[in-house]
Amino acid sequence: MNDAVNDTAAPLVDARHLSVSYGAKRAVDDVSFTIPKGRVVGLLGHNGAGKTTLMRAMVGLAPAQGTLAVLGLHPVRDRVAVLESACYIPDVAILPRWARVGDLVSMMSRLHPRFSAQRARDLLRRTSVAPGDRVKSLSKGMVVQAHLALIAAIDARLMILDEPTLGLDVLSRKGFYEMLIDEWCDGERSVLISTHQVEEIESLLSDVLMLNEGKLVLSISLEDMDRRYTALSHDASVAEQMAAAHPLLRYRAGPGPGGHAALFDGPLPAAVQALGQPMRPSLVDLFVALTRKPELDRTQF
Fold this sequence. Notes:
Shape: globular
Structural class: alpha/beta
Largest sheet: 6 strands, mixed
CATH architecture of the largest domain: 3-Layer(aba) Sandwich
Number of strands: 13
Oligomer: single chain
Number of domains: 2
Order of helices and strands: EEEHEHEHHHEHEHEEHEHEEEH
CATH class of the largest domain: Alpha Beta
Strand order of the largest sheet: 5-6-7-3-8-9
Distance between the termini: 55 Å
């Protein structure tokens, strides 16, 4: 295997001025970021922001311009080697409905050199899926759990998940993420997760990438995010003073006349520090601030 895959000092993903175009449309536009080992990274963006295209580029399914190294390898030229140490679950992942789950474990043993059938069986015991179950008899949530068990049984260093819990109920989503964090994340491997359930996964993330219309508007760790961005809850009576300080976003932070907030990039301006109570902005609030249309003002809602 290429020695680059085993270079533990290098980032698992290194993108420099990366662009992906479909005809005249540039789906990913001059994006640069790295993913070190041992991180859980949330990839956030509205529909059509370029998230799926970026993930497809990382596994060699979307040829890109610029520089992209995944596990030190070129995703297109070295795609077989990349997929030996990187796992990918697309948003339209489908397991063959005719197969029994145990048959899929046996099939993966023959197809993937780094797959552990025993580990897959151990992971399946954490679910309500039995080896003798046919895929067509499983609920959508059970199919997703079975799929994760199969993928997590690969001795890989990077997992790429595109909307893995789309359409699942809250309990199924919770079970999926618990299994992912408990059984796969070990401080050496990294996970990139694209999702719209931002509130549910914020506590799991170490880093976030935000895309807006193909451009990367934020690449930051959650620790640095907490240090960089601040918010101030305030009463409606001081709304004009808050607006004059030019926050990134003004929004409703709760019911009642005092349930207003303003989000700032950097320390609170001196002119407004005494007008309210400092608070931690949520990832959702920051996402809205950095990806909203200019005319949107959440104080209207």
